[in-house]
Amino acid sequence: MALEASADAVHWTFAPMLDISRDPRWGRIIEGFGEDPYLCSAMARASVRGIQGEDMSKDGKIAACAKHYIGYGAAEGGRDYNSVEISDNTLRNIYLPPFKAAVEAGVSTIMSAFHENGGEPVTASKYLLTDVLKG
């Protein structure tokens, strides 16, 4: 992916998609690595390293973007863009591990999800974006 994109002067990709999804009705389920946080974390690390390498200034390497932070794959009823209700325990033990793995692997960027979690837009959540992600 990085080799082909960089050959066309693309410097950034919107991958890997790290959403955990356990509802097969969700239309974007095929973009992710499955429903297991351990497997998704391993794939997150491998994807970031494969896309970015050790040095993004080298040929064939581009910036990765871990998406969709966080809980987008838990859309109620499998309906895309639907709201979610995720407890803090589930957030930290199911949905966060792949993103943590991507950050530890040095991912360049993270895309915020565009749904609501508990009635609050993720893109406006101080708790999710500042306290959890940046903290």
Protein model, in words:
The protein has 135 residues and is of the alpha+beta class. The chain has 4 helices and 4 strands. It has a two-stranded parallel ribbon. Strands 3-4 form a two-stranded antiparallel sheet. Helix 2 (37-52) packs parallel to helix 3. The termini are far apart. The model has no long low-confidence stretch (mean pLDDT 95).
Summarize the structure.
With 135 residues, this protein is of the alpha+beta class. It is 36% helix and 10% strand.
CA radius of gyration is: 15 Å
Which structural category fits the helices and strands? alpha+beta
N- and C-termini, Cα separation: 31 Å
The H-and-E topology, N to C, reads as HHEHEEEH
Portion of residues in beta strands equals 5-15%
Strands, total number? 4
Q: Could you tell me the mean pLDDT?
A: 95
Categorize the overall geometry.
Answer: globular
What is the overall number of helices? 4
Report on the biggest sheet: 2 strands, parallel
Strand order of the largest sheet: 1-2
Helical coverage, percent range: 25-40%
Report the uncertain regions. Answer: none
